[in-house]
Design a protein that fits this description.
Blueprint (H helix, E strand, L loop, with lengths): L4 E3 L1 E3 L1 H44 L1 H7 L7 H20 L3 H8 L1 H17 L5 H42 L2 H14 L2 H7 L3 H42 L3 E2 L3 E2 L9 E6 L5 E6 L5 E6 L4 E4 L5 E4 L1 H18 L1 E3 L32
Amino acid sequence: MSGGIEALPLLALSIIMEIEEQERALRLERQKVRVATAEEIRGQQLQVVRGRFLLELRDVFVALYQRDALLPDHAVCLREQAEALQAALEAAQSEREMWRISLATPRLLAELHRALAVKRYSDQTAAAEAQQREADQRLREQLRAREREAARQCALSEFRALMGSLQADPVVMRWHNLGVSNLELFTDQIALSEHPGDVLNVANERANVLITEANAAELKAKQRDYITSGIARSLAEMGFVVNEPAEEHPEHPATAKILHAASPAGKEIFVSVPVEGQVWYEVDGYHQETATAVGGGTAVVCDEAEGVLIEMHARLEAEFQVEMGEITWRGKDPNRALRKADELPSSAPKQRGKGR
């Protein structure tokens, strides 16, 4: 053959729907894995943050259990506040809720320092009042800083959960490994941004695009694999020895699947099935001749190989509902009727075409 033989495959609607339904079920399972992974990561991070905020209460409880450190009324009031805050932190079910509760900690610490000062000095001097005003200003600054930190840390925690969920999805990692890696750049952007929530929203949008594209690519790959399997079985039924399908470029998931089929007479067919486009054949051992084309000129005649492929296509459509388009190759006369293989001259030269 001279050049590749090609034909466009068309899956029957029923087969398309069946493959889509199977993939839809798998897609839901992958989504469940992503959600479960994200929740597990959130839970781990929640315990870390809980430990941090409970540790902040240590100074309050240490002072409460020091004899004569505080006046009795102050000690009772501060103990009630500290225990209520501790209980709220232990019961919090989300990191954002815990950050909100923790805003009470700087206020409680400020009240503790005020109570310690009252115990230390029986009367408030002008200097003590000035110190108190400075302490109040520091408290306001601490609260503003904590609110900003809360926004960044909550956004970073959500982003870590997002990355973990993507990495737990084998389809996303198969089709968009580099895209997921590039998302890591959002870590620094969230940490440095004045509006980390907005940056997190952009990261979520990009992640959704990666998931959608990966799912679409996986569906096309499943259709490619179905066509490949149908061709392999059809050729096997025709007496060919068919090798296991192989990936043309194993490092890339969108590669074509390659088949090699050999007949007992030593004739070979190489098949390349892409994720989209024409199926290409390369044949070896089949006769080719140049004949006068209808309307003048010459055309390449490959009746024997074409006859084999037509039979294979008929089996493919009957058994697997895959309809193949017209078989074409470079130099074919589109107006010529197919002749039987035994009408080809035995002296015709042998050439090979190639597929992709």
